[in-house]
Amino acid sequence: MAALTGLQALYPPDRCLVGAAPLKSFESDGLTAFKAKPRAVVLPETADEVIATVRWCAEHQVPFVARGSGTSLSGGSLPVADGIVIGLNRLNRIIEIDPDDRIAVVEPGVVNAHVSAAAAPHGLYYAPDPSSQVICTIGGNVAFNSGGAHCLKYGMTSNHVLGVKAVLATGEVVTFGGRSRDELGPDGTGLFCGSEGLFGVALEITLNLLPPPEAFHTVLAGYHSLEAAGEAVAAIIDSGLLPGALEIMDALTIEAAEAAVQCNYPKGAAAVLIVELEGSRERLEHERPQLTNLLKKTQPFETHIAQNTAERLNIWRGRKSAFSAVGRLSPDFIVQDGVVPRTRLGEALRRIDEMSRETGIRVANVFHAGDGNLHPLILYNGSEPGALERAESLAARILRLCLELGGSITGEHGVGMEKREFLPEMFDEATMAHFQEIRRAFDPALIANPGKMFPGSEAPALGHQGVHPLEQKGVISRE
Fold it and tell me: Which of 98, 230, 262, 315 lies 20 to 30 Å from 422 when distance is taken between CA atoms?
């Protein structure tokens, strides 16, 4: 391993952290079951410092991990043992808000919610809204192609990123896409979104902004069974309505949310369904009675319609707090995010409940019901011998259930460390080999976030010389 002398020369001592105490906070991310001790953590304040750091790592073949706020729930920003963590929170400038072109250009450490706050005076906002949006960063959202409660209507992060300037693991600075919504040629921007840090580090990100909806119609419905709530989702989708959001929380999650934020959800509910219509006032005048009639047929025992912004935000506060609130019920939990077809949502929930009762492990369910993205929270006490292993075993069964039902192992959290052994169960050998080929085109030495996404050991370092293969194909451009 190369001496840190050259790296330390790039930073003042308070921005190149070494030693047990300063590094402790960086040993884990949102998936606290995994820990690893990095060799150093650097805190760049400019893009040039990030580039210099990556080039030092490339020269000395030192692995690195880019990290934002550390909210990854799949271990995606877990440090590499004896590697370098590049903390990006200080690259938090909103470089530009262009209200005419409806774009924002931001650095990777900008917090998701801050983009909408900056765009609001111009009558615009940034649509992707992960539950952690008040703390998660745009760089992390890009790395894992984050979604959010409104992804049913507005799509994922990749649907809102127009361009990315990045430093690849080789030290090359490249540009994908740009400011236009009509790029020609290969979609390098889309390829970079969701690459989980395996290609390099984003330096600047160009985002699409939207005018906010003119009006909202937010309904909270309580049901006596989780399956009934799931059937209500199917009925809404089958009707042709396209709500901005369709979310379900079960009784255990409701209990936690009530304790945390006093959201006043229907008492005694086995599940609640949040439906939010949004758009022009004229459109909502047409859709509101249609939704009302649909919900009546699904027989909720209680329905509440938000009468003002405060009531709407209170409904959403319960949903947005769900993950953190479950910490009140259990000292530890694993969050999964498998996906199933909407038509098999009820079956998936029933079988997860059966697995929970069979194993004696409590599972709290909260999910983006509109696109079948499950978020079962598997509760356990890590201080009990074997508890983590039992929880992981149940998590594996749930992921395999999603595949059995024709779904996916991840909807928005990514593969990371947590689900890498399941990737070959979803893709055949030829596809896996192609994934690796693409990865090596960006990072021949495999030093960018190694050990994530792909199962098994990493391949030895490969040389990188001459013209970049993706440059030849027009996917990237050099600076």
Answer: 230
Q: What is the DSSP string of 221-273?
A: EEES-HHHHHHHHHHHHHTT---SEEEEEEHHHHHHHHHHH---PPTT-SEEE
Start-end of CATH 3.30.465.10 domains in the chain: 94-211
Amino acid at 371: D
What does CATH list as the number for 215-324? 3.30.70.2190
Task: Give the integer Cα–Cα distance in Å for 419 and 413.
Answer: 10
At 151-200, the pLDDT tens digits run: 989 999 999 999 999 999 999 999 999 998 887 788 999 999 999 999 99
Buried b / exposed e over 388-419, threshold 16 CB at 10 Å, is beebeebbeebbebbbebebebbbbbbbbbbb
Model pLDDT for residues 405-451, shown as the tens digit of each residue: 999 999 899 999 989 999 999 999 999 999 999 999 999 999 999 99
Residue ranges of the chain assigned to CATH 3.30.70.2740: 330-415
How many Å apart are CA 178 and CA 298, to the nearest integer?
A: 46
At 348-369, the pLDDT tens digits run 988 999 999 999 999 999 888 8
Reported confidence tier of residue 2, pLDDT bands at 50, 70, 90: low
CATH architecture of residue range(s) 94-211: 2-Layer Sandwich (3.30)
